[in-house]
Prior knowledge:
- The chain is of the alpha+beta class and 95 residues long.
- The chain has 3 helices and 3 strands, in the order αααβββ.
- A hairpin with a 5-residue loop joins β2 (63-66) and β3 (72-73).
- The longest helix is centred in the middle third of the chain and has 16 residues, at 25-40.
- The two termini are 42 Å apart.
Amino acid sequence: MRLIDEKALKEYQMQIxxxxxxxxxxxxxxxxxxxxxxxxxxxxxxxxxxxxxxxxENSCLYGTFCSRCGENYGIPxxxxxxxxxxxxxxxxxxx
Length: 95
């Protein structure tokens, strides 16, 4: 499944070449109306933004900690099992 921006899709469909509108106004109006109704009829999805984090290794406390929620895990995963953070955040080293 792929989420789309309804407003952007409606704006995109309005980018009809002027020569089409000039020659086929009734057909273009009908197509825009059909596509607008189809867009509005689609189901909505309850989605949340992706949260990013990184693992912090601490040899003194014997663990790997999530930078978002602080949960301790012995093995780093691609995501935090506790808060769901995607572990792809770039770690900046101190100079």
